[in-house]
Design goal:
Elements lengths: L4 E9 L9 E10 L2 E9 L8 H7 L3 H4 L5 H12 L3 E4 L2 H14 L8 E3 H8 L8 H7 L10 H18 L2 H12 L21 E6 L5 E7 L2 H7 L8 H9 L2 E6 L3 H15 L5 H5 L4 E5 L9 E5 L11 E5 L2 H15 L19 H4 L13 H11 L14 E6 L4 E7 L2 E6 L5 H5 L9 H13 L4 E5 L1 H12 L1
Helix pairs in contact: 5-8, 11-17
């Protein structure tokens, strides 16, 4: 059984944000060297109205807490009760974050070693997908007399820890606990307090040095674990060494899920150009070909670079390559395979009108350059051959949204013709995102992110089609 002094704790709150929401109930079970010592619970006046949703979930109403003590009144005695004890909680950073913020309001610096039962369950039972409290209750036959009440949930956690010692060997439990307790050493100019509030949820993080511009931007579905992983002495890359030497502070931007994090990361890297994101910056551009829709054009293709194509012209975009040489090499291969004219495609220096290209002289071109094949026939064969590298056609009649639901937030990411228009963190703001001025530029990274998501249709994403009416309204507004 776990040694030392433990406090199994659960909080009920007015919401999910430790800096602005408040505690409404505290429940705890005290254990010493595996032996039950005491339990305690207390309703707390949050000095704010409890939202109806929270009232329906917990059964704790504003009327119930109106005459209860405030956290300020409870703080001194609770601080002493928790001091020096390991805090055990489900999704422990949530409860720990609330406690630290509440104590901090009244000048008390609460710090504790924390053991998270969600992480413990994931480590010991990786074969299971769900590790929320309801799943643990069902899976391990635990008893909860008052679900979503602080003491009831805290007692379930104490039962869970007792149960795992019956189901799993002690060595495995000790290893999982030790892994949670271990922390990598932080860079010399970055304090532990700076990372205390990092959430275990999706988002983007920004490392800053001495200047006001970030030195590195990254993303993760677990911000806390990813940021800490940069400072692990066991798996440190050259980039992580640079980060450790230069980082002074960390910022983060939460998102609803992985898609939001991918989009925000791509956008921020292009806007802020962090010095240590060299690979992402180097790969952010592209080269392709824009076709001339006139079928008898003597210049059927034009080489283009990123930033020069607007969404209104995407139907004529063919091929997406990271470098100019790769684009030209691909076109050369297609021309050779299909007997197309390198002169008309801009792969050879221009010749006198009607003069055969070099490829025709060695019988690799059917003669569109010298009148032996019509331009229409040549260009039809060209466009047919290019189908294999053509940009995937936008499969909708207008803009779409991808609704992404997370544990604490919901976002709607809005796109049109593979271009990212923005993200609405509230349904009422969707048309604010659509109401843009000027057609957005095509971005290769965004295209690949969105194309993959639409192809995979990952669970948790909901498609919203705004339809042709929204499309015509949006395009008129963008004109």
């Amino acid at each position: 059984m776990l040694e030392n002094s433990l406090v199994f704790l659960d909080l009920e709150t007015t919401g999910a944000t430790p800096t602005s929401d408040r505690i409404t109930e505290i429940g705890l079970v005290e254990v010493e060297n595996g032996r039950f010592i005491a339990k305690w619970s207390q309703l707390v006046n949050p000095e704010a109205r409890i939202p109806p949703f929270i009232e329906s979930l917990t059964g704790i109403t504003s009327a119930m807490v109106e005459n209860q003590p405030t956290f300020e009144e409870l703080a001194p005695a609770l601080f002493e009760r928790l001091k020096g004890k390991i805090l055990v909680a489900h999704n422990a950073r949530f409860d720990y974050g609330f406690l630290r913020n509440e104590f901090q309001r009244f000048g008390l610096n609460y710090r504790a070693k924390v053991l998270c039962t969600v992480k413990l369950s994931r480590a010991l039972f990786p074969q299971h997908r769900r590790h929320n409290l309801d799943s643990l209750i069902e899976r391990h036959n635990l008893v909860c007399d008052a679900r979503h009440r602080a003491l009831g949930d805290a007692e379930v956690l104490w039962q869970f820890v007792q149960k795992i010692y019956q189901e799993v060997d002690t060595a495995s439990i000790n290893a999982a606990v030790a892994k949670q307790y271990s922390q990598p050493s932080l860079p010399p100019r970055l304090s532990a307090e700076a990372l205390e509030e990092l959430p275990e949820s999706p988002g983007v993080y920004l490392f800053y040095g001495e200047s006001n511009l970030p030195i590195y931007i990254g993303k993760s579905v677990d911000l806390r674990a990813r940021v800490w992983s940069h400072f692990s002495g066991d798996h440190r890359s050259g980039k992580d060494m640079r980060i450790a030497q230069e980082v002074v502070r960390v910022e983060w931007r939460p998102t609803a899920g992985e898609l939001g994090a991918l989009l925000k990361e791509a956008k921020l890297i292009k806007e802020l150009l962090p010095s240590l994101n060299r690979l992402e910056r180097r790969q952010s551009g592209y080269f392709g070909f824009e076709r001339d829709p006139v079928l008898d054009s003597s210049k059927p293709l034009k080489l283009i670079a990123s930033g020069t194509v607007e969404a209104t012209r995407l139907e004529n975009l063919i091929g997406l390559f990271r470098s100019k040489s790769a684009a030209l090499a691909a076109l050369t291969g297609i021309a050779t395979e299909h007997g197309l004219c390198p002169g008309l495609l801009g792969l050879e220096p221009p010749r006198t009108a009607g003069a055969p290209c070099f490829a025709h002289q060695i019988k690799r071109c059917r003669g569109a350059c010298c009148g032996k094949e019509s331009l229409e026939a040549h260009n039809l064969r060209l466009f047919e051959a290019l189908q294999s590298i053509r940009l995937r056609e936008w499969p909708y009649t207008g803009p779409i949204g991808l609704r992404e639901r997370g544990e604490q937030r919901t976002e709607v990411h809005v796109f049109d013709r593979w271009c990212y228009l923005g993200t609405a963190d509230d349904e009422s703001k969707i048309y604010d995102v659509l109401e843009v001025r000027g057609a957005p530029s095509f971005d290769l990274d965004i295209y690949r992110i969105v194309e993959r998501e639409l192809r995979k249709r990952r669970k948790g994403l909901e498609l919203i089609e705004f339809g042709a009416l929204a499309s015509s309204w949006y395009r008129a507004a963008a004109a």
